Amino acid sequence: MEQSLISLERLRTFVRIAERGNLAAVARETGVGQSTITRHLRELEEALGVSLLTRTTRRTALTDEGARYYAHCMQILSLVEQASQEMRETRQATAGTVRISCTGALGVMHVSQLIYAFQDQNPGIRVEFGLTDERIDLVRDGVDIAIRLGPLSDCAMKLRSLGDSQRVLVASPEWLRRNGPVLRPEDLRDLEGVRMSRVHGSDRLVLRSKKSRNYVVPFHGRLIVDHGLAARDAFIAGRGFGPAHRWLVEDCLSDGRLEHILPDYSLPSVQLSMLIAPERTTLTRVRLCVDFLAEGIRRIPGINRG
Hints:
By secondary structure, the protein is α+β, with helices and mostly antiparallel strands. It has helices at residues 8-20, 23-30, 34-48, 64-92, 104-121, 138-141, 173-179, 228-236, 246-255, 284-297, and strands at residues 53-55, 60-62, 96-102, 125-131, 145-149, 158-165, 167-171, 194-196, 204-209, 214-218, 223-225, 242-245, 259-261, 265-266, 270-276, 303-305.
């Protein structure tokens, strides 16, 4: 039996012929030539090795084998339609699981709160929330949405810009008392900083004046950390000065635990983006989550809307 000739298209053609009893009528209904209908039937019969229909000049009737095969075909096509309907309903459902990955400090301080609010509005949606500053493979790791700081090069994913994350230079009041006032970029040259590991160019600071002049200052320190929350704690503890995302330290600046150094100079901002697995964008629950998070993240202090 040539199994490749048994396709859903040929099964549907056979069922229509069996129900209408006329090849010409089926051809008109499907919008194809009668020769195509005849060929589909012939190929199906050849693949099965039996005659499914008896044909006269006036009418087409099912053989005994054709009647049994018709019953099986109806079951098969019904199951196919049922499976397709279930998938359509799944795509449109506001229930199910959404898997989210986020940069660690941003996730702890801000995105987690947005997820709580999202679930309050969508109680049928389960969220799996992973925190990592490492680049991940969304498809390999089964992640629907990833929120990332910095330039991205994964063109296979759907990219949604969330804006730019503003950075500021900070230190504790106690550290400033020990090290004296910082009035110019040059005053930072010999001072102890808190550096981030795995950040390109973290051995220097680029400061831009209001007159658009750039100052490059060497940046060094004995403490090097790999997480934004660790850097925040080190600043508060007076272990050194350094650059920080405004959303990371806004509360500390407001309550006086940290101070903004050289407020008349700006640091380069960092791109903030959302990556979405392309095959998941058709799911209603994922689209709802993407829109909710995007709107909420753009309201975080220090995120300049993209």
